[in-house]
Structure to design on (436 residues):
DNA sequence: GATACATTCAAAAAATCTGTTGAATGACAT
DNA sequence: ATGTCATTCAACAGATTTTTTGAATGTATC
């Protein structure tokens, strides 16, 4: 750490924050944390990392100011330190989506239904929720649902969806949502349901964005 | 590049964008490019880098989709690929500023006058510009001024300011600006002028933000 | 065409980052 | 106290990055 000009010191500090975003595993962890607090163990399992490795990534992000943690008994729970972090991740996605041909290809291949139907906007859904005209479907895993979800949402994790189609009404419109703008769960759920003749659309973005928009949650 | 799940591939792509922001020199280059197009040579000189090194950093950022370039005669001019990149950098600064104690210290030490006087908002300045009540002072280097500046602004680069105080009116308010929220030029100019009895305030942020806000430029 | 110039490429050394291992820490339960 | 559990630390090998050097590329100018 040679003593550079204060200006370069400042740039170096901001660069630390950016570096903390600069790894696939860390972005995956951040998406999980966008849902709410999680223990190291839960994050490691979801992201497919060893405990030690997850711990390292978490420590790095905490140092960079992206995360905060608190102790709860034996566990340590991590969370995003500030809503501004969610903004930052969103800005990153926006740039990546627009400018990276490779991302577009992946998105085009995997999210092929992407433009098949316009997503429902949060405002629209909030309005129609009040009128009770719509069934809201949360396709995230049960624990993420338990940690917070949209009002009146029913939870059918994606992998159970095929065998629980009867739990959904065929005559009402279904709106599916999951974690956020690049979460595939709702896309796949919508594709599956559409194949079975349901009237289904996706919610724009996901639960974290709904909550961040100040709309009611349960 | 092992073939991971598409999801992790997507994260890896976004991580590339973040990595491209993850170096002090690159953030410095980005701030310079926020002013407008620049040649490799100009960027290398300003950032204190060798040509080859600057070229490498630029190539990396172009690959990540942050920058675009075009040839103009012998030179190659780089620019930000998209306004979304400016948003991303702004989001990064916001997170860094809020969450990094070290940044706060640097800012507190170097930008000590920061809170001495509230900056003038863009709206305020735009309004008062119409009434002709205010002198706008651009303290960036002459070439950056030439590439674009606020209407009616006069250009006195910071290092010339001390010997050109007579060019400024003492009875009217002066509003100084420079490159952006973490540019020190306007802070130092304001401090200097205040010491000499001028009525001076800073504009919030800088030229790129003014332009991005859709306000008129020359 | 030959030359000058701005930029990029290629290669290599130095520095940094990643993921694994096994030991250390700190809190809870017996 | 002792044991257990979740997490962190320390250290290491392997992989990436960063920077420098000198040569190569492609454009304009003579």
């Amino acid at each position: 750490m040679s003593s550079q000009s204060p200006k370069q010191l400042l740039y170096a500090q901001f660069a630390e924050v950016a570096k903390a975003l600069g790894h696939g595993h860390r972005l995956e962890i951040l998406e999980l944390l966008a849902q709410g607090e999680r223990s190291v163990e839960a994050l490691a399992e979801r992201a497919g990392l060893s405990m030690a490795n997850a711990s390292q990534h978490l420590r790095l992000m905490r140092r960079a100011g992206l995360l905060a943690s608190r102790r709860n008994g034996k566990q340590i729970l991590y969370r995003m330190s500030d809503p501004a972090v969610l903004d930052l991740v969103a800005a990153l996605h926006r740039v990546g989506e627009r400018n990276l041909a490779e991302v577009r290809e992946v998105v085009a291949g995997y999210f092929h239904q992407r433009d098949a139907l316009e997503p429902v906007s949060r405002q629209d859904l909030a309005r129609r929720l009040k009128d009770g005209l719509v069934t809201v479907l949360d396709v995230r895993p049960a624990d993420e649902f338990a940690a917070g979800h949209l009002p009146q949402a029913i939870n059918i994790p994606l992998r159970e969806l095929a065998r629980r189609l009867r739990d959904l009404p065929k005559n009402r419109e279904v709106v599916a949502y999951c974690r956020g703008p690049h979460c595939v769960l709702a896309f796949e759920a919508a594709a599956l349901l559409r194949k079975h003749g349901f009237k289904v659309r996706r919610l724009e973005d996901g639960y974290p964005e709904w909550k961040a928009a100040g709309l009611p949650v349960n």
